Amino acid sequence: MEAYIEGNFTVGEQQIHYVEAGKQGRQIALLIHGWSSSWYATSPLLGQLAQRFHVIAIDLPGYGQSPPLEETTTIPKYVDLLAGLIGQISDGPVVLVGHSMGGMISLALALSYPVLVERMVLLSPTISGRLSTAINLFISPITMMERFGLGSLVVSATERAFVGLTDRLMRPVSFAERTGITKADYERLRMDARRPGQGRVRAECYRAMLDNDLSGRLGKIETPSLVIWGAEDNTVPLRDAGVVADEWPAADLRILPKAGHWPQFESPDVTRRMVAAFLGLPLHSSALFKPVEEDELAQINEIAQFLVSSDVGNDLTLPQRTRLAAQCQVRVFEPGDTIAEATETSDELFIIQKGYVEVWKDPESNTGAHNHEKIEHVANLRAGQITGELAMLDRGGRSADLIAGSEGAILLVLSRQRLLALVEDDSELGARFLWNMSTAMSNRVRFVLWQLNQERRQGVAEQDAAFGKLPVRS
User: Fold this and answer.
1) What is the rounded radius of gyration, in angstroms, for the C-alpha atoms of the chain?
2) Which residues constitute the domain of residue 13?
């Protein structure tokens, strides 16, 4: 985690500590942690998001290195403060990433200031503000005691004497039984939760979440959002996920097995894949903190716009087309270059972006292999059309040669592996892509059958004319 820098913002008179990564001047991704935490709660996504965004992960007032608010902490006060921060540091809408209480703050921000938020990624967000039974029975009494001076002293003394007490209580509440969190990350998260001087804000935030029940309001949110929940979350119970499913069907809700309240730490690879698919991130986790160059971002945006008029872009939203564009490789062919040969085994689908592609085939071959002396030009495929879809689906040999046309060709290449990952990570986009691909294949087959019927009719007419029954029309 060395590829970030730290600093402090001042909004009004309130100081907010932050860490940042990625290139300045790009769209801002604002990362908001949850209760009893700090910016580190969102750190597993920091490097990945820095590939494309100017990432800012904050310590909410009263947590980490940010001083508390002077007045009683509430969710609306956090929301108004962050709205002021966004207006101060960003020249356009931001992407919000919120964990737990940070998810509730993100949702409230999207409700109160929708113009400030383009998209959201929510990790185990609290919706109703009612935490799990285990939290209410074991943790909240300690939290409420911390609010008052004597109780805070008692809790602090107890914690010093029995430092493992809250750890033993919190581990099964926070993490799945088969959690993948590392020991180092676990210790850092517990250190944040133990940070001295946060008793008052923890107690105030516990009450603030209860007072900010979002049930009944989610249907008003139009911001495209990905919601990731751990199946074994015993902090913010899955009943809140049920509220999301009931009231906010437009949200992309994912439930991860073997994850509790911290999916970004417990199932980091899966979480990153889902976030990458949702935000259209072009690179993988192996290149964390390495910003994508401006020309690649421009290329992704250009491809996303182009896909509107392609065989596979029908009814895809801009975020979906951006996700799809980020999965495609670009290949450039000079006029007459061989793109693919018949019988060649391949698992790649081609989308023609510029120029056209000639299809050549031996009409006497059923396998794709051909006699070069008999090979015939079958068709030209223009920009926006797909080819190679059958070979990609079954990994079989191609049935024809593909040659770049007289103007050359620029192709978008989508591999079977990337398509399967796309379907797994974004089922809605995957289903729509496969539907569009099937529709394109169906239309092509119908056209070919029409051509065959026309040829058959012409053949019958010529045969009849040979026997003097009908004149042959030119």
Assistant:
1) 29
2) 5-287
For every residue of 171-225, DSSP letters joined together read HHHHS-TT----HHHHHHHHHHHH-TT-HHHHHHHHHHHHTT--TTTGGG--S-E
Question: Are 43 and 192 part of one and the same domain?
Answer: yes
CB 374 within 8 A of CB 363: yes
Distance of alpha carbon 405 from alpha carbon 359, whole angstroms: 10
460 occurs within a structural domain: no
Instruction: Kindly compute the dihedral angle of the four CA atoms of residues 58, 31, 11, 144, in this order, to the nearest 10 degrees.
Output: -60
Say whether 378 sits in a helix, a strand or coil. strand
> What's the pLDDT tens digit per position in 358-411?
999 876 655 444 445 568 888 899 999 999 888 888 877 788 899 999 999 999
* Domain match, 186 and 70 both: yes
- The CA-based angle 352-354-356, given to 5 degrees, is 65
- Is 122 in a helix, a strand, or coil? strand
Q: Residues 44, 294, 84, CA angle at the centre, nearest 5°?
A: 60
In a domain, 196, yes or no: yes
Confidence (pTM):
0.76
By the 10 Å C-beta count (0-12 exposed, 13-18 middle, 19+ buried), 51 is classed as buried
pLDDT digits (tens, 9 = 90+) for 37-47: 999 999 999 99
Say yes or no: 317 and 197 in one domain.
Answer: no
